[in-house]
Amino acid sequence: MGKTHNSKSASADGSSTAVVRPFGWRDKIGYMCGDFGTDFMFVFAGTWFMIFYTKVMGIPGTIVGTLFLLARVLDAVMDVTVGVVVDRSKDHPGGKFRVTMMRFTAPLVILSFLMYQTFAIDAAMWVKIVYMSVTYVVWCFFYSCVNIPFGSLASTISAEADDRTSLSTMRSMGGTIGGLILGIVAPIVIYQKVDGHQVIRGGDGTHIFAIVAAVVSIAAFIGYLICYFNVTERVHPDPDQNAKEGEKRSPVHMIANAFSSRSMLGIVAAALCLLVAQLFSNQLMTYVYTDVFGSAALASISGLLGTAVMFLVVPFVKPLTRRFGRKSICAFASALGAVSMLLLFVIQTRSGIVFLVGAVFMYFALMGFNLVIWAMITDVIDDIEVTRDTREEATCFSCYSFARKIGQAVAGELAGLSLDWVGYQSGATAVQSAATKTALYNVATLVPGVFFLLTFVCLVIIYPLSRDRVLYNVEVLRVKRKGITGEEARLLVKYEGITPTGTAPEGSTIEWPDFHELERARELSARTGIAIRDPQAEASTHIEQ
């Protein structure tokens, strides 16, 4: 694992370097603000991009959905490429990941504003499609250049498991706060009621989306600045690690190494399914509230309740994950999401309040998953280091991001196809038929329900990192940081009585290896100061008693 710096260290000439600030609330708030900036743009694009181009610009939903699909597939490839490039780049005195993040922040927020311009509203359809496609694809590229180093920061801010859980929770809170602001304010600002129907404020040719996008971009930039100036990278990569534990790998080998891990495959499959459920729901919920139930206020209330659920769940995250493990929490949450959405599909309610109650249970499912998912990524990074003796944070995070982008692509394509399939009429002042409203309700509940169920299956069957295995990995890496190899660390932890299936209780009979291995463990114990359970000494004590 990388080296953790929390105190004075000697430089090459023997002098002392500056003390590194201990991990604390400044890091948590900074990282939370970084995700606020990320999700402020991401949620705005995920919720309003399709609405802008279908209702305001008049582009068919199928074309917008196809753009989502193609752009996200390309974006997924860019994510992995960026991850490899960042991992292979040299460390920086200010921190490799946070410096890389800020280099691309300005062009990202500028593109986030340019995507919602209406100057081409009267141009030919192909002109509007080209402008939409170019700005969106370029925005996706810069999003990868910012999001991959930002996501990789979590494993370098602290090496402690509890600290990482805190960072995951704070990151999710930052994104949720951004989503709350958009969920409450955006529908009220963008929509207005005319003759009993919800329509886009300003009608055809409206500039309301450009105004909101400008506010979102500025707020996101401020969030990234707060993150940059308040987060400290303490776990720096060892430049000789790969040379010590294996030949330096090619980019293809680095990617293959990550994807060949069962823990990575499990989290990738679960994340893909969850993102389809979440983003498909996000994209269609506004349509459901405004067109089926005829109330933009319900969309705002829904966003407010989603944040309220987050604050209800946050105090229980640490104790629950310590007791049951992150895998169990996420599996339960996914099952809850599946039940809530499939139940709404079955009962076919026409009451906006009843639908809102069902959505609240879905929010519990999303919060249960999203509050710990970022810590699960660091669990996967740790697991790959324990099992493969390699540590490449950005590559691993980019592989996870690859799955997220594929999930976004599938969700966007499904949403666009669904709008055309239900016969949705585009236009800022268009009113939908009763048949369209019914079909819209059905797809908005059934599709997320099915993908929540698939998320549950992926976690239970594929993802292997139970609570005990995570604790085992943490201990192996703690021992490894004493300056020994991964193989030696695994041997010492084995003699501590800690295994991937749990810690053997004191006094229990453990199947120990041969004498030569025991001798090696004794030597390592003396060198590192790590206490081990010596079976021969325990046996002698038992005989004397």
UniProtKB/TrEMBL annotation:
<dbReference type="GO" id="GO:0005886">
    <property type="term" value="C:plasma membrane"/>
</dbReference>
<feature type="transmembrane region" description="Helical">
    <location>
        <begin position="175"/>
        <end position="194"/>
    </location>
</feature>
<feature type="transmembrane region" description="Helical">
    <location>
        <begin position="329"/>
        <end position="347"/>
    </location>
</feature>
<feature type="transmembrane region" description="Helical">
    <location>
        <begin position="252"/>
        <end position="280"/>
    </location>
</feature>
<dbReference type="GO" id="GO:0008643">
    <property type="term" value="P:carbohydrate transport"/>
</dbReference>
<dbReference type="InterPro" id="IPR036259">
    <property type="entry name" value="MFS_trans_sf"/>
</dbReference>
<feature type="transmembrane region" description="Helical">
    <location>
        <begin position="106"/>
        <end position="127"/>
    </location>
</feature>
<feature type="transmembrane region" description="Helical">
    <location>
        <begin position="133"/>
        <end position="154"/>
    </location>
</feature>
<keyword id="KW-1133">Transmembrane helix</keyword>
<protein>
    <submittedName>
        <fullName>MFS transporter</fullName>
    </submittedName>
</protein>
<keyword id="KW-0812">Transmembrane</keyword>
<feature type="transmembrane region" description="Helical">
    <location>
        <begin position="206"/>
        <end position="231"/>
    </location>
</feature>
<keyword id="KW-0472">Membrane</keyword>
<dbReference type="GO" id="GO:0006814">
    <property type="term" value="P:sodium ion transport"/>
</dbReference>
<dbReference type="Pfam" id="PF13347">
    <property type="entry name" value="MFS_2"/>
</dbReference>
<dbReference type="GO" id="GO:0015293">
    <property type="term" value="F:symporter activity"/>
</dbReference>
<feature type="transmembrane region" description="Helical">
    <location>
        <begin position="439"/>
        <end position="463"/>
    </location>
</feature>
<feature type="transmembrane region" description="Helical">
    <location>
        <begin position="353"/>
        <end position="377"/>
    </location>
</feature>
<dbReference type="InterPro" id="IPR001927">
    <property type="entry name" value="Na/Gal_symport"/>
</dbReference>
<feature type="transmembrane region" description="Helical">
    <location>
        <begin position="292"/>
        <end position="317"/>
    </location>
</feature>
<dbReference type="InterPro" id="IPR039672">
    <property type="entry name" value="MFS_2"/>
</dbReference>
